[in-house]
Here is the input.
Amino acid sequence: METVIKQSGKTQVFKDKANKVMGISLEDAKLTKSYLSVAFLAILLGGLLGLLQGLNRAGMLELPAWLNYYQVLTAHGLLLVVVLSAFFTIGYFYAGLSHTLGGLLPKVRKMAWIGFWMKIFGFVLAVIPILMNEASVMYTFYPPMAASPIFYIGLVFIVLGVWMCAFGAFINVASWRKRNPGKHIPILSFFATAVFVLLFFGSIPVAIEVFTIIPWAFGWVETINVMVARTLFWAFGHTLVNIWYLTAVSAWYVIVPKIIGGRRWNDLLTRIVVIALVIMNITGGFHHQIIDPGISEPVKYMHVFMSLAIGFPSLMTAYAMFAVFERTARKKGGRGLVGWYKKLPWGDVRFLAPFIAMAAFIPAGAGGIVQSTNQLNQVVHNTMWVVGHFHLTLGMSVVMTFFGISYWLIPYVSKRVLTPQINKLGIIQTIIWTIGMIIMSGAMHWVGLLGSPRRTSYSTYFDNATALSWDPYLFFLAIGGTLLMIGVLMQVYAVFNLMFFAPKGNTEFPVAEVEEDEAPTPRWTERWGLWIVCMIVLVGMAYVIPLVDFIVNAPPGSPPYKTW
Amino acid sequence: MMKSSVSGFLLLLALMLPPVANLLESIMITHMHMQMPLLVISGLFMANFFQNRFPDFFSNWNENGVPGILLFSIIMMYWSLPRTMDEALTLTSVEAFKFISLPFLAGVPLGDSWPKLSSFWKHALIIFFTILFLALGWLYIWSPVQLCNNYLVIEQITLGWGFISTAFAMVVYLIYSYFMDFSKYE
Here is the structure.
C-alpha cells in the first residue's frame, strides 16, 4: 500500500518515530487537553440544564422566572450540540493528526489556539443574552424568532474559530502529503480531513444565514425570508449532526479493532464510506424540513431519496463493524454462530462504551429513516419523538463513543494510565448511561407518538385528558434524565481523574493495522478536490430548485418576533 | 467490460419508460440537467461495446480523440438551446432524436475520446463548457421573455441558476487542478 519513504524526509522519519515511542509532544497534548476540558465542562453544565428541563417537563419542578424553560433549553442545546461536540471533535482529531502525521506544525498549533479562543469568546458573547433572557430562541435559532444581535455575533465567532481549526488541519495534512509522496493519508487523518471538509462547507450556509439575520436583528432591515433562513440553517444543522457521527465512526473503524486485539476493516472500503459521507451529507438537511410549506412535493420526494442515500454508507459501516468483531473473536478461538461474542473484551470500557453506542445506532438509524419518510414524519414531526431520536443518536451513538475514546485519549495526552478502578467506574457509568438513555429516549419516543409536543415547557393544556395521559411517560423521562445526570458526574470525574490524578505512565494511541494480505488502496481515494467538486454539484442539484423558488416567489418577509 | 455496456443499455431503457421520461421532462431543470446527462452517461457506459465491435472505425476516425469530442460538444450545444427542448416535447421525431443523439452521438464519442485526449484538451473542454454554462445561465436567468412554450419563467430562472452552480463547480475543479501538482504526491 505504501511506498518506501524518500531519504529527504529523514528528520521527519525520526520525528514520526519519536512521536510513536515517546507519545504526543507536550504542546500538542496541552492543546487537546484544553479542548477536551472545555468539552467535558460543557457536558457537566449542559447535563445539569438537561436535568432541570426533564424535571420541569415531568411537572416536578417549577423553574424560577429568572431562568425559564426556554433559556435552559437554548443553553442546553448550545452547550451540548455546539460546544461539547465541536470541542471534542477538534480535540480528538488534533491529537489524531499529531499522532499519525508526526506532530502538529507550529503554525497549525497556533491556528488551533486562535480558533480555541475565538470559539470561547463567541460562546461567551452568545451566552450573555441567553442569561439575560434576550435569546431564548433555542439552538436552531431560525427566524421569525429573533434574539439579541449579540447572540448572532457570538455565533459568527464560533464559526470563525471552527474554520481556523479546519484550515489548520488542511495545512497539516497538505504538508504531510508533500513530505510523504506516494503515501496514503493515514486513515485517522483521512477521517479528520473529511470531518474538517464537512465542518467548513457545512458552516458556509449557516454563516450566510447569520449574516442576513444580523442586520434584521439590529433593525436595519425590516423583514427576512424565513424559508431561506430555515433552509440555510438545516444545510448546516444536518451536516453538523453527521460530523459527530463521522467522528464516532472514525473510532469504530480505526480504534475499536485495535482495542479488541484485531485488525481493521478493508482500507479501501473504509475510505469509500468516508468519501460517500462527505459527498452526500449536506443535502440531507432537507429532511428536517419535510413538513415545511413552500417546497413542492417532487422536490421533497427527491430529498427523501437523497437522505436515504446517506443510509447506504451507514449500512456498510454496520456490516464492517460486526465483521471485524466476528473475525477478531474467531481468531481468539470464538465458536458457534453467535457464540464468538464471548471472546470480546466486555470488561474493557474502551470497547463496551463504543459497542453499546454502535448497537444504539440500529434503532436510532431506523428512527431516522422513519423521519425521512414523508407520511411518517407528518405524524411525529413536532412531537417528543424527534427529541427522543436525537438523544438516541447523539446522546448514545455519538456521546458514548466519545466517552469510550476519553478512557484512552485522556491518559494518552496526559501521559498517565487507565487504572482498573477507573475502568470499573467507566463500566458502571456506561451501564447507568445506557439504562438512563433507554428510559429517557424510549419515553420520549413513546409519548411523542401519543402527541406530546416538543419545544414546550410543561403544560396540562387546561387539564385536557389527552395531555394528562402523557404524564406517566414524562415521569420516565425525568427518571432517565436523573440517571443520565449521575452518569455525567461519573464521567466528568473519570475525565479529570485521568487528566490530573491517575498514575503516570505511557498509554498507547490505539490505531489498528489493516489485514496483512490486503490489496493496495488505489490512488484515486486521495483526490479530495474531486470529492469536493462532486459535493458542490450535489449541493447544487439539491438546493437550486427550492432556493430559487423561495427567493423569486418570496412571500412578504417576516419582521422579528420575540415570542417569550 | 460487457457488464458496463449492459448496465448502460438498461439505464437507457429505464430512461425511455414513459412514466420516467414524463416525470423528468415535467420540470425544466430535471429535463436538461438530469435526463440529458443521464442519457449521455448511458452512452458512456455503452462505449465499450462499440469500441470492441468497431475497433477500426474508432481508431481511423477518432485517432487523437478530438473529432469525437467535437461531435460531443456539438450535440451538447444543440441540446442546450431552449428551442430544442421545446421541440422534443412537441415533436415525436425530435424526442426520438434526443434519445438517440445523446447516448450514441455524445456519450459514446465522449467515452472513446476522453482517455485519448491530452490534459490540454481535457482542460480546454472543461473551460469551454464553463464559459458556455455561464452564458446559458445568464441567458436563462435574465432573459426578459419566456424562452420555452412548455416551461414557466420561474423554471427558466431555476435552470439558469442550475447552469451557474454547475459552472461554479467546474471553476472550483479548474482551480484545484491548476494549483495542485499531482506529481509532488506520487
Observations:
- Chain B has nine helices and no strands.
